[in-house]
């Protein structure tokens, strides 16, 4: 086989395998994270069962059995939590739980801030589009950001937007920037489209991008 053809086939095979590998890594991370949440409860249950039925406890103590039980326990708990959150009594319980956490200084800061971010991302901000493009890390380079709120600058009266800029391919980490509202490039993207663009490294994206206000003719930018 000619060396060029061998190289081409290897590269084609690698490009074919990469999406499967990335999907497996993301899936493995999510499943492992969910199983890790329920693992302590399953371990405690198996330990208590050992006093009543040692044979049953031994059967459940196998690694893969514990893993599956922990995953199922977490999924069932999340489902019940979502079910309760949509019921009046569940909302009251969650409100009481929130009030309890509000009294713990450090926990309140982390939990309260994260919950507000999740709530904000579910609602469209006033005076700005949710998904925008931002000049970062320098002018001329664009990144996708999510506007979390709009503020007013003292003295100048300028409207400033707090923009969360997630990283690729893990959007749970990122940067927070305060940017003048008129320097943002608004988009008509939904949250799902923006997240798909970020996680895929730009592979899943529309064919066109909105132009920044400074790049538009004066007649269009003031329209």
Give a written overview of the molecule.
This is DUF502 domain-containing protein. InterPro entries: COV1-like. The chain crosses the membrane at residues 9-27, 33-52, 64-85. This protein has a five-stranded antiparallel beta sheet, covered by helices on one side. 9% of the residues are buried. A hairpin with a 6-residue loop joins strand 2 (142-152) and strand 3 (159-166). The radius of gyration is 24 Å and the shape is flat. The N and C termini lie far apart (62 Å). The mean pLDDT is 76. The chain has helices spanning 3-52, 54-60, 63-85, 88-102, 105-121, 191-199, 218-221, and strands at 131-135, 142-152, 159-166, 174-180, 185-186. Helix 1 runs antiparallel to helix 2. 56% of the residues lie in helices and 15% in strands. It contains seven helices and five strands; from the N terminus they run H-H-H-H-H-E-E-E-E-E-H-H. The protein is an alpha+beta fold and 223 residues long.
**What is the count of helical runs?**
7
Low-confidence parts: none
The percentage helix is: 55-70%
Strand arrangement within the widest β-sheet reads: 4-3-2-1-5
Shape: flat
**Average pLDDT, all residues:** 76
SSE inventory with pairings:
Layout (H helix, E strand, L loop, with lengths): L2 H50 L1 H7 L2 H23 L2 H15 L2 H17 L9 E5 L6 E11 L6 E8 L7 E7 L4 E2 L4 H9 L18 H4 L2
Antiparallel strand pairs: 1-2, 1-5, 2-3, 3-4
Short description:
The chain contains 7 helices and 5 strands; from the N terminus they run αααααβββββαα. With 223 residues, the chain is α+β, with helices and mostly antiparallel strands. The protein has a 5-stranded antiparallel beta sheet, with helices on one face.
